[in-house]
Design a protein that fits this description.
This protein is α+β, with helices and mostly antiparallel strands. Helix content is 21%, strand content 20%. Strands 1, 2, 3, 12, 13, 14, 15, 16, 19, 20, 21 and 22 form a twelve-stranded mixed sheet that branches.
Length: 636
């Protein structure tokens, strides 16, 4: 119900070309001024979404989230960064959207007694808006909430015909009751602390009418044909009408509605003229997501005035953007992110078969001593100074508190660059320089095999490629050699059934960025295994055995980590949850299945005429209902 899993980076988006305008010399005052209505914004996407359902349902790709956010809403919605920077409770991160209030124990919506299901450990009552209509004309209500619960867990449990990204969270559900058209009560088998994330955010709730088409034949939601007409309910004569599957069309409740999707070219949205929130009526006529090859091409279009906004250039291009800003065409926006650029190790060789027969099993990267040497060999501060232009910091060895400061454990170290100590650790562990390994400059494992690791990252991102080369050079200084490669984001982050490199564990080292939601239980899917064999149904390491569910691509198998995450999700008491997640961080810092390189920073460009864009470190298009162009023209 809205995936509580983490979301993977690799997106750069661009907005462009508002048309129309006010008379010359006028100075329209604000978003509701008639002169500021209309126009077209074109958003460049450097990686085409693999599916509209890749926004946390069958995958977790930030560029899919950015495309879906103006269309598909959830029970709760995001607040701007300025409002969440000092958040101390989970409720502080959310505002009601399709729900009328945030359920808490204080307002009586969260109960541990008196639930509709007698043996439920907890129940949550969602009070819903009664004035929301889906783009196809059906009315939103409790039936949609319960159908979404049925889809994620209650109907199929672990045997969903749709390859959902993860069932972690929904698997705590035991029942969903439609108390009335505007109220639904979810019952849980445990006191589940992550309940707010279920159904919230982009595509948090799916339309029951679409789900029930798949339920009738128990077929894959991505492959079930849906016939829809989105014109009448939205007042948009150009909106989509026809038959297709939900990987290629999207039906939501948001301020913009799908017009068309042209694979390899673009996705076009038009204004929902009957948007339910009368206080947040959209201003733009049309939004076009245009697929662009790379961020360098995107930057060229920004410099040429062909686009109005570029999203997520990353820090490597900050200098070029600053130079463009001096010309007065655009401004530069930076957003500290709730996530890190990181280097994953494949540790499947120590996962007791949980990764599956298809996985690469490398005992070198699975050795914690080797990983401790690697973190000391990489000069992360130098990467921050050069590639990230000194605009960010190196995180703690366990970094999952970024953006969730209330769970931060100050005792977690930030390991310093120390190549001499890295060499000492490698020597002591039996990884010694070998005459036959790169002319005596490379190391061999204790069995005498030269260490040559495959090191992959996403293409089209200069910062990543520069960091990849810098890391390769640092590792060679201590005798570790790597083979560099870049692939498209869809290939790296693809689902297990699609042969994604991460989910099928086909790597030695993989570098990418990862960010998360306000709910720390979202990390459960990234790190949890099978409790040392005691909880096989909770295993989050993707494999044929669990139909590829989960995001534990590293193959980490540590019962201490599992236990801490289990304790964190088993209570709604914030102090108890904080203690559990701090214990999880200490265990992760000791295991070191990944090296956090630096805290990610989103770098956006905004044209001089664009207004209303608010900062959010997780969903960059979260408030598109506020966007407008001064005088209908985004370019100066």
């Amino acid at each position: 119900m809205g995936a509580p899993g983490r979301l993977l980076l690799g997106l750069a988006l661009v907005l462009a070309a508002c048309g129309g305008g006010a008379p010359a010399g006028s100075a329209p005052a604000g978003p509701d001024d008639p002169h500021n209505q209309g126009g077209t914004v074109t958003i460049g996407v450097v990686q085409e979404p693999t599916s509209f359902l890749a926004a946390g349902i069958v995958d977790s790709m930030l560029f899919s989230v950015a495309v879906d956010a103006p269309v598909a809403e959830g029970l709760l919605w995001y607040r701007p960064l300025e409002q969440t920077a000092r958040a101390r409770t989970l409720a502080d991160f959310w505002r009601p959207m399709l729900a009328v209030e945030v359920p808490t124990t204080e307002n009586g919506d969260v109960r541990t007694a008196g639930c509709p299901v007698p043996d439920a450990a907890m129940c949550v009552t969602w009070k819903l808006r009664g004035d929301v209509v889906w783009h196809d004309g059906s009315r939103f209500g409790a039936h949609d909430v319960c159908a979404t619960a049925q889809f994620y867990w209650l109907r199929y449990h672990a045997h969903n015909p749709t390859a959902v990204q993860s069932t972690a969270g929904p698997d705590q559900l035991t029942d969903c009751r439609e108390d009335s058209p505007t109220q639904a009560t979810l019952s849980f088998r445990t006191r589940y602390g992550g309940y707010l994330s279920l159904g919230s955010g982009v595509y948090g709730i799916l339309p029951a009418s679409m789900l029930e088409n798949a339920f009738r034949t128990d077929t894959d939601l991505e492959r079930t044909p849906q016939t829809v007409d989105l014109r009448t309910a939205t007042g948009a004569p150009d909106a989509y009408h026809g038959t297709d599957t939900l990987d290629r069309i999207i039906v939501g409740t948001g301020p913009y509605v799908l017009e068309r999707y042209e694979p390899t070219k673009s996705i076009t949205l038009v204004r929902n003229r009957h948007y339910w929130d009368r206080s947040r009526q959209p201003h733009l006529d049309r939004v076009i997501f245009k697929f662009i090859s790379d961020v360098t091409s995107q930057l060229a279009q920004a410099n040429a005035g062909e686009i109005d906004v570029g999203l997520d250039y990353r820090l490597a291009l900050l200098g070029d953007l600053d130079d463009a800003a001096k010309l007065g065409r655009l401004t530069v926006q930076t957003i500290p992110e709730s996530g890190a650029e990181k280097l994953d190790f494949d540790v499947c060789a120590a996962a007791h078969g949980l990764c599956g027969a298809q996985a690469r099993l490398d005992p070198v990267t699975a050795d914690p001593r080797f990983r401790q040497a690697v973190i000391r060999a990489i000069d992360r501060q130098q990467i921050v100074r050069t590639i990230a232009r000194g605009q960010t910091t190196v995180p703690q060895d366990s970094w999952i508190s970024l953006g969730e400061e209330y769970i931060r454990d100050p005792s977690i170290p930030t390991t310093a660059h120390d190549p001499a100590e890295a060499r000492r650790i490698l020597d002591a562990a039996g990884y010694r320089l070998g005459d036959g390994c790169h002319g005596g400059r490379g190391r061999a494992d204790p069995q005498g095999h030269c260490i040559d690791l495959d090191f992959v990252t996403t293409s089209g991102n200069p910062a990543r490629q520069q960091a990849q080369i810098a890391i390769q050079a640092d590792l060679e200084q201590v005798g570790i050699f790597t083979n560099l490669s870049t692939v498209k984001a869809g290939r790296l982050f693809g689902a297990f059934g699609d042969g994604g490199i991460l989910s099928t564990h086909q790597f030695d080292l993989a570098m990418y960025g990862q960010t998360g939601s306000p709910e720390p239980d979202g990390w459960y899917s990234l790190y949890h295994a099978d409790c040392g064999g005691a909880c096989p149904d909770e295993d989050q390491i993707p494999s044929p055995a669990n139909r590829g569910q989960g995001q534990n691509a590293m193959g980490l198998d540590d019962p201490a980590v599992d236990r801490a995450f289990d304790e964190g999700r088993a209570t709604v008491d914030l102090a108890q949850r904080t203690a559990a997640y701090r214990q999880a961080q200490r265990a992760l810092a000791a295991d070191l299945p990944e090296v956090p390189l630096y805290r990610q920073v989103v770098v956006n460009s905004l044209s001089a005429g664009l207004r209303g864009v608010q900062r959010n470190d997780r969903v960059w298009t979260f408030n598109m209902y506020d966007w407008y162009c001064t005088g209908g023209r985004c370019q100066p």
